[in-house]
């Protein structure tokens, strides 16, 4: 069971858009539409911002959007704001025996 | 408003057993709508799913930890628990409990987390 691959860092200026990738395999990301994204501020618990590839929980701004193509899922943050600076983690269902697999996390910096 | 709160020793000696509890308030651990999960995060690292327990006692564990992990759901208390045996320094992490709508593979609700350090 290998972790999903995320870039360690990403950055953008306020108002810009940034996209973070999450690459898995045909056994996890590519096989199921169960990709989630979590936002984590320093010292805090993760917060779910995207589930089932592109669905947003209530209260999450529509500046956050998700998509998937093949074995790679993506999170796009539009209209970057200072409070978006955080770590972002992706996860995917990996089948019953592997269940949930996480990526290594991406640190998003708002310049 | 449902809340989750982890508790347990912050320091565990190598080769001993790590034991944590997650108290559920504002809702019932006996609800059939949810899986109750444990997830951990080593210092400076990404998240690692440990496993879940359903109110029936059915469990599903991360294959890499399965031989050392046991989860139980409370009988008289509204809580669920995690035990990890034969711990090493690699088990040092912040441990989170989290609620998942059964089968959704997404963790909508998290506890605040508790740091467990494995050291002699």
Description:
The complex is a heterodimer of chains A (111) and B (120). Chain A is built from no helices and nine strands. Chain A has 111 residues and is mainly beta. In chain A, the strands form two sheets. In chain A, strands 1, 3, 4, 7, 8 and 9 form a six-stranded mixed beta sheet that branches. In chain A, strand 7 and strand 8 (100-102) form a beta hairpin. Chain B has strands spanning 3-7, 11-12, 18-25, 34-41, 47-53, 59-61, 69-73, 79-84, 93-101, 107-110, 114-118. In chain B, strand 7 (69-73) and strand 8 form a beta hairpin. Chain B has 120 residues and is mainly β. Chain B is built from no helices and eleven strands. Helices cover 0% and strands 52% of the residues of chain B. Chain A binds chain B through residues 1, 3, 32, 34, 36, 38, 44-48, 51-52, 57, 89, 91-93, 96-105, and chain B through 45-49, 51-52, 60, 62-64, 96, 104-108, 110-113.
Features:
heterodimer, A: 111 residues, mainly beta, six-stranded mixed sheet, three-stranded antiparallel sheet, 9 strands, 0% helix, 43% strand, globular, B: 120 residues, seven-stranded mixed sheet, four-stranded antiparallel sheet
Strand content of chain A: 35-45%
Query: Which secondary-structure class do the elements of chain A indicate?
Result: mainly beta
- Work out the largest interface and the residue count of each chain: A-B, 28 and 21 residues
Low-confidence segments of chain B, ≥5 residues, pLDDT <50? none
Q: What is the ordering of alpha helices and beta strands of chain A?
A: EEEEEEEEE
Indicate the multimeric state: heterodimer
Percent helix of chain B:
under 10%
Q: How is this fold's topology laid out?
A:
The complex is a heterodimer of chains A (111) and B (120).
Chain A: E1 9-12, E2 18-23, E3 35-40, E4 47-50, E5 64-69, E6 72-77, E7 86-93, E8 100-102, E9 106-110
Parallel strand pairs in A: 1-9
Antiparallel strand pairs in A: 2-6, 3-4, 3-7, 5-6, 7-8, 7-9
Chain B: E1 3-7, E2 11-12, E3 18-25, E4 34-41, E5 47-53, E6 59-61, E7 69-73, E8 79-84, E9 93-101, E10 107-110, E11 114-118
Parallel strand pairs in B: 2-11
Antiparallel strand pairs in B: 1-3, 3-8, 4-5, 4-9, 5-6, 7-8, 9-10, 9-11
């Amino acid at each position: 069971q290998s972790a999903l691959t995320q870039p360690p860092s990403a950055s953008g200026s306020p108002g810009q858009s940034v996209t973070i990738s999450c690459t898995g395999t045909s056994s996890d990301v590519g096989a199921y539409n169960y990709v989630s994204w979590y936002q984590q501020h320093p010292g805090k618990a993760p917060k779910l911002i995207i589930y089932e590839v592109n669905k947003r929980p209530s209260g999450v701004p529509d500046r956050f959007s998700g998509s998937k193509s093949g074995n790679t899922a993506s999170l796009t943050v539009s209209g970057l704001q200072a409070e978006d600076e955080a770590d972002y983690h992706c996860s995917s269902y990996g089948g019953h025996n592997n269940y949930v697999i996480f990526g290594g996390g991406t640190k998003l910096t708002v310049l | 408003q449902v809340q989750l709160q982890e508790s347990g020793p912050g320091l565990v000696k190598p080769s001993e057993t790590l034991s944590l509890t997650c108290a559920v308030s504002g809702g019932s651990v006996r609800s059939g709508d949810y899986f109750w999960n444990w997830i951990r995060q080593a210092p400076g690292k990404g998240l690692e799913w440990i496993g879940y327990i359903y109110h029936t006692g059915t469990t599903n564990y991360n294959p890499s930890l399965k031989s050392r992990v046991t989860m139980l759901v409370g009988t008289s208390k509204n809580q669920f628990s995690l035990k990890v045996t034969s711990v090493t320094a690699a088990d040092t992490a912040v441990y989170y409990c989290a609620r998942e709508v059964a089968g959704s593979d997404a963790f909508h609700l998290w506890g605040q987390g508790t740091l467990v350090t494995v050291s002699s």
